[in-house]
Amino acid sequence: MSSPLAIVLGVGGLYVGQSIIGGLTFIALPSVLRERNLPLDQIGLLYLAVLPWAFKFLWAPAVERYRLPATGHSRSRSIVLLGGLISAAGLMSAGLIGPSAFMPLLIVLLLIAFATSTSDIACDGHAVETLSERYHGWGNAAQVGGAYLGSAIGSGLFLVLVAQYGWGVACFAMAALLIVLGLLFVVSPAPPSPGRDHRPSLRQALQRRDMHLGLALAAVNVIAQKWGVSMLGPFLIDSGLDLTSLGIVNGVGGMAVGFVCALIGGALVRLCGARTVLALALMLQAVALSGLAYAAWKGGVGQPLLLILALASSSGIMALGFVALYAQFMAVSDPRQAGIDFTLLQCMDALVSMAGGMGAGWIAQHWGYGLYFGLAALLALAAAPIAAILSHRVAVRSDARKVQREALAGVPSGR
């Protein structure tokens, strides 16, 4: 049987790699483009690269049926290997294209996003089906901690490399790192291969009430957490921060704060429950965004305070909340078709993120950063009680479904 530690390390490595691309695309690249004086509304178009993540549920059933044949080992590793090679090749192509050719670069980023989002279907399905419930906390920590580590590398180390050695070297370095991280998953031990009589289906997922609640919870959380930080990089550049300094802050600061808060979030979820942690994270985000709104309106606020608020909102508080959210995602997902279920929930996250990212660029360009952060703070405050209610209902529905499934299978509850 596969070691839980090996599974967690493999999943964590993939999340680091995927988030390197996300940090590069949505955090580092907007800052690079802003330094080259591209308008904010054009920078907001980068969020079109979220499209594959938003609509990967359309091909998730086909991927899941291929991944889980009727007999024999799952094909998770072959899917991940191919996706990793395509992503690395795409990053090398981006290095050759350069950041000034905006539309060709955006096309390459869309291709990379398609490859990584497809690999993610296999990765998440593998995690849910191979980790028993007692190890779900480890899986959540690997997902969220890996995501913040990767985002810190993609938004921090990448910017430092761009500033010191140029765009091409930075892209090639990220491609090499992506391959190394993918190997952690590809060479991990294969899980058991039971016979499978369940045919993964998108319809079965969409017919469940707990999935409806999970999708609503994902949307509310993204509106409150992610919309407010979409233009954070350009705001810091316009406030006088250079790329090297921003890269160091995003990298070292984001990695440390995000990882520590992910661990704290995991402990709090175990002690207080996901409902309490989600509501707490959203209220804290409202406070941090209010501080950014005040800084944007007043102007002349010292860079140390700006950086504290930026790290709190984009790394610490989001890590706290996403540990709880991903715990709910695992609870909602059916282990027999986890790749489809988890994908649906992530697609809602990505779709709402894309809409908010593009809208954020327009609001910041035409109405200013102050109003943009102020509106985001109000959304976060309003979302806190809604997220708490939805989280509670998700837990109740998921527990009832689990008891019913175990009763039909003749498994004692509470395993």
From TrEMBL:
<keyword id="KW-1133">Transmembrane helix</keyword>
<comment type="similarity">
    <text>Belongs to the major facilitator superfamily.</text>
</comment>
<keyword id="KW-0812">Transmembrane</keyword>
<feature type="transmembrane region" description="Helical">
    <location>
        <begin position="211"/>
        <end position="228"/>
    </location>
</feature>
<feature type="transmembrane region" description="Helical">
    <location>
        <begin position="79"/>
        <end position="97"/>
    </location>
</feature>
<feature type="transmembrane region" description="Helical">
    <location>
        <begin position="248"/>
        <end position="269"/>
    </location>
</feature>
<feature type="transmembrane region" description="Helical">
    <location>
        <begin position="103"/>
        <end position="123"/>
    </location>
</feature>
<feature type="transmembrane region" description="Helical">
    <location>
        <begin position="7"/>
        <end position="30"/>
    </location>
</feature>
<feature type="transmembrane region" description="Helical">
    <location>
        <begin position="339"/>
        <end position="363"/>
    </location>
</feature>
<dbReference type="Pfam" id="PF07690">
    <property type="entry name" value="MFS_1"/>
</dbReference>
<dbReference type="GO" id="GO:0022857">
    <property type="term" value="F:transmembrane transporter activity"/>
</dbReference>
<dbReference type="InterPro" id="IPR011701">
    <property type="entry name" value="MFS"/>
</dbReference>
<dbReference type="InterPro" id="IPR004752">
    <property type="entry name" value="AmpG_permease/AT-1"/>
</dbReference>
<feature type="transmembrane region" description="Helical">
    <location>
        <begin position="276"/>
        <end position="297"/>
    </location>
</feature>
<feature type="transmembrane region" description="Helical">
    <location>
        <begin position="369"/>
        <end position="391"/>
    </location>
</feature>
<dbReference type="GO" id="GO:0016020">
    <property type="term" value="C:membrane"/>
</dbReference>
<dbReference type="InterPro" id="IPR020846">
    <property type="entry name" value="MFS_dom"/>
</dbReference>
<feature type="transmembrane region" description="Helical">
    <location>
        <begin position="303"/>
        <end position="327"/>
    </location>
</feature>
<feature type="transmembrane region" description="Helical">
    <location>
        <begin position="144"/>
        <end position="161"/>
    </location>
</feature>
<protein>
    <submittedName>
        <fullName>MFS transporter</fullName>
    </submittedName>
</protein>
<feature type="transmembrane region" description="Helical">
    <location>
        <begin position="167"/>
        <end position="190"/>
    </location>
</feature>
<keyword id="KW-0813">Transport</keyword>
<feature type="transmembrane region" description="Helical">
    <location>
        <begin position="42"/>
        <end position="59"/>
    </location>
</feature>
<dbReference type="InterPro" id="IPR036259">
    <property type="entry name" value="MFS_trans_sf"/>
</dbReference>
<feature type="domain" description="Major facilitator superfamily (MFS) profile">
    <location>
        <begin position="5"/>
        <end position="395"/>
    </location>
</feature>
<keyword id="KW-0472">Membrane</keyword>
